[in-house]
Each structure stands twice: as C-alpha cells, then as structure tokens.
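Closing statement on the coenzyme A sub-project.
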Amino acid sequence: MWPFEKPQVTIGPMRSDHAAFAAKLHSASFAHGWSEDEIRRMLSNSGCVGCVAVEPKSRKPLGFVLAQCAADEAEILTIAVAANARKLGVGQRLLRHEIPTLVAKGVRSLFLEVDRNNQVALKLYNKFGFTEVGQRPGYYRLADGTTATALILRATIG
Ligand SMILES: CC(C)(COP(=O)(O)OP(=O)(O)OC[C@H]1O[C@@H](n2cnc3c(N)ncnc32)[C@H](O)[C@@H]1OP(=O)(O)O)[C@@H](O)C(=O)NCCC(=O)NCCS
C-alpha cells in the first residue's frame, strides 16, 4: 500500500458510524470477531473511549482502538490495524492518541490481555511501558480448536 513511505494518518475519536469498518477489521484480525451491533453497544457504554486512524486523502479508516474506563482504571478492549497498513506505525499512533485521552478522563492504570504468542502486539505494548501482571492459561480459543494463554499487562499512565 505504502511501499516507500509511512502512511499519513489522522487519528480521531471513534463514532458509531465506524462500527461497520471496525467489525470487519476485527473479524479479519481475530479468531472470534465482534459484530457491528456489539461494537455499537460498546461505544454506547459510558466510559468507552475509542480512536480511529484514517488515511486523510481517501478518508479510509485503517485501524482502531477501543478502551473501557472504570474510575481510575481502564482496559484496552481491542486494537487492530488493517493488514496492508501494519508495521508502519499506525498502532503506535493509535496508542499515542488513546492514552492521553484516557489520562484526561482520570485513568491512571491501563490493563489489557494479549495472546502470549502475539509477538507484534507484545512489542508494541512494551514500547508503551506495559508489564506482565498475570496470566490466564487457555483463555483464547483459536480457530484450529487449540487454546492459548493470555498475558495480563498493565501500564501506569497517569
Ligand atoms: C498489533 C497491531 C495492532 C500493531 O499495529 P501496527 O500498526 O502493525 O504496529 P506498529 O507499526 O505501530 O508497530 C509497533 C511496533 O511493533 C513491532 N512490529 C510491528 N510489526 C511487526 C512485525 N510484523 N514483526 C515484528 N515486530 C513488529 C515493531 O517493534 C514496531 O515498532 P518499530 O517502530 O520499532 O518498528 C497490528 O499488528 C494488528 O492489528 N494485529 C492484529 C490484531 C492484534 O493482534 N491486535 C492486538 C491484540 S492484543
């Protein structure tokens, strides 16, 4: 898609009209996708904070991140970048926008779960200071019927 340079992206708040794109990208990225309705419901929860990365010229959405706040803690529910836009810094841009937005809402501790084999995601989270605080063996059911351990990561952001 961008063979010679990193994509220009703008990051903005995620709205319910991004749900169709997000459901499609989520289903393409994970063994168990979320429907458009599920994503709309999440977005309507108070304390749900989402960001979308958009290619400015085409206005095509390239990725999104969704988090749920509860008092001074929040959980990243999901983050995904379109396959043809990965490894170009879009995931980092999303977190660089999402984290200050959460801090502005009073969040101090940010949690997430990640498959222990997801090296790309682990590298990304490592850059943002996440460290392991627990494990859930057998948490993920993979498309081939096997299971994988979830690592619980935490970062102090405020
Ligand atoms: C995880 C994901 C969101 C990262 O988004 P991205 O836009 O590809 O990430 P970035 O380009 O910002 O990369 C962040 C860091 O990850 C690492 N990285 C990215 N792609 C990599 C790859 N294919 N192999 C190894 N490391 C990689 C790099 O260290 C990069 O930092 P760098 O600047 O030093 O190169 C994206 O790969 C994705 O959507 N994956 C599928 C869904 C998923 O697994 N989500 C996480 C669930 S917990």
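The two ends are 36 Å apart (CA to CA). With this model delivered, the sub-project is considered complete and its resources will be redirected to Aim 3.
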